[in-house]
Amino acid sequence: MSGLETAIRHALERSDRTNSETRARIYQSARNALEAGLRKQDVHDPNVIAQQRHRLEAIIHAIEVEERAALKAASVPPPVSIDTGSGRSNAASAELDDGIHMPPERGPAEGVSPVVDGGLAGLRPERREASRAPEAAAVEPVSGKRGRGVKVVPPKPRRRKRGSFLSFVMVVTTLVAAFGTAAWWVQTSGLLKSAAERDTSVANPPSTVQSEDFDGAEGLKTLGSESGFSGDWVEVFKPADQANVTAGNRASADPVSDENGQRLRITSATADADGNVLIEIPASVLGQISGKTSTVALSVQSDAGKQTQFAVECDFSSLGDCGRHRFTVNEEKSDMLFKVTFDRSLAPSAPGHMLINSDVTGAGNSLSLFAVRILPGQ
């Protein structure tokens, strides 16, 4: 921003800086140059744009304060008394002439094309063709010991209403930018969210990708935000039940126990049936869900730094299947839920199986299975 400040000051030095309209045009040229530079550099972040505008307005405000102070200091010449008595000498006349100073004529301002840092070039103040004629000084009669005389009173500086309006606009613009930045920060920081919305202890299940899949958000409501899985849930699998796990020809199921807890690490090398891992579901549990609509929950997690899409199918003996469900899971432990409906009321006599493929894309990503639970319907 130092290059932009230098460009503004150079433009003022080569222009009629005593005129507020000329200064306003130079300031506006600086704003236009900043906006063009931001667009050229592909800057679209609202926070960065607001900060750059705020800093430019602060520079313009500081320069304008300096310009007004300089104009005020130069606009009040000392009063001069003129003796009109009959005994005035040539020396007095010369002294009077020396006491009255007329401002020199100012030629047309030359154009300025400063270069601004960051590629913000093209700042050029508009040239004013003619300067405003100064007001004539007032002459007042005075009386003294030497006789009567007159006193030259300098003209009062004209109030620059336009300059005051521009200052007001700059202040309002700065305040609007500050409030806009504050509002953006409050919105993005989550300050207005409720405690429940900021609580990330229970991860929301991701959206499913098949039309027949169960709405995970709808099923998660049955868990309760505080109690988790209630006693009505039947745990049909846990990592210790290794005897109830069967891996396909191109799949593996290895028990793992570390700081993340006990789990079954499933790895499918193919997306077809050879990559499935079968989890046995007891016949007694199948009898509880026959003729009802029940909910199935899988507690899963992907490898660190990876994301995987896994599939779940059912082969519940005489009850039939439950379709194919696909879920996307990341490295955070999540509970994936879906519903199953079986119209047949006849309880099967043989156990069923739940088929899990850890990566339906065939890339071989692994899936950690912590538990399988079923909530029988009423």
Walk me through this protein's architecture.
By secondary structure, the protein is α+β, with helices and mostly antiparallel strands. The protein folds into 2 domains: 2-189, no CATH class; 216-375, Galactose-binding domain-like (Jelly Rolls). Helices cover 31% and strands 26% of the residues. It contains 8 helices and 16 strands. The strands form 4 sheets. Strands 6, 8, 9, 11, 14 and 16 form a 6-stranded antiparallel β-sheet that branches. It has a 5-stranded antiparallel β-sheet with strand order 7-10-15-12-13. Strands 1-5-4 form a 3-stranded antiparallel β-sheet. Strand 12 and strand 13 (324-329) form a beta hairpin. Helix 1 (2-13) runs parallel beside helix 3, helix 2 (20-40) packs antiparallel against helix 3 and helix 3 runs antiparallel to helix 5. It is rod-shaped and about 115 Å long. It starts with a helix and ends with a strand. 23% of the residues are buried. Residues 80-139 and 204-227 have low confidence and may be disordered.
C-alpha-based Rg, rounded: 42 Å
- Secondary-structure element string: HHHEHEEEEHHHEEEEEHEEEEEE
**Strand fraction band?**
25-35%
The assigned structural class equals alpha+beta
From the N-terminal CA to the C-terminal CA, the straight-line distance is 70 Å
| Total E-strand runs | 16
Give the domain tally. Answer: 2
Task: Give a short account of the largest sheet.
Answer: 6 strands, antiparallel
Morphology call: rod-shaped
Summarize model confidence as the mean pLDDT: 75
Point out poorly predicted stretches. 80-139, 204-227
Helix content: 25-40%
* Tally of contiguous helical segments: 8
